[in-house]
């Protein structure tokens, strides 16, 4: 790493690292995503916007046209149509359909998007955990409409601090949450894509 941040690359499974931040510099990088069909294409989210590399991280160019919030905290790529990307920011969710050449705000019932997760089997299904205890939402149509999954995770406002899909079981979802009104963090699982939840994680409560 470096004193200021930036992007580094390893060719030996992390035993050693080389600087890979030309065009990004020492900016704090909060998100990295790799195009699954063209691994030389990468995207980075920073406090001053998004960047794109088409040479495996050797050089980077700004890719923030249309982003009205500079800090990008999450980037998710559609694995079937990798020119479609979603960027989570403190001003909501943004979507690109042209490989980050341009971005458009996604109309949504949440003011921020700290966690963005696409279902790799059906990537028009996406989950968004809003920042500042603003809830947890799901779309099955690429962000056109949304449903609020928060009620199944307990009463009161909450922030989703971690989210994962089971790669072997369709619809199996895990969420770690932190209540707004204090109290211990909690871990939940869903067997049906968030329609219903059960408390899980005995022994790890309060540690998210």
Describe this structure in words.
- With 208 residues, the chain is mainly β.
- It has no helices and 18 strands.
- The chain has strands at 8-9, 18-19, 29-34, 42-46, 49-53, 61-62, 72-77, 85-89, 92-96, 104-105, 115-118, 126-129, 136-139, 147-148, 158-165, 173-179, 186-190, 198-200.
- It has a four-stranded antiparallel beta sheet, with no helix packed on it.
- A hairpin with a 7-residue loop joins β13 (136-139) and β14.
- The protein is globular, with a radius of gyration of 17 Å.
- The model is unreliable at 203-208 (pLDDT under 50).
What is the string of helix and strand elements?
A: EEEEEEEEEEEEEEEEEE
Distance between the termini: 25 Å
- Classify the helix fraction into a percent range: under 10%
Strand order of the largest sheet: 3-4-5-6
Major sheet characteristics: 4 strands, antiparallel
Give the number of helices. 0
- Indicate the proportion of strand residues: 35-45%
Mean pLDDT: 87
How many whole angstroms does the radius of gyration measure?
17 Å
Care to count the β-strands? 18
**SSE class:** mainly beta
Low-confidence stretches: 203-208
Backbone shape: globular
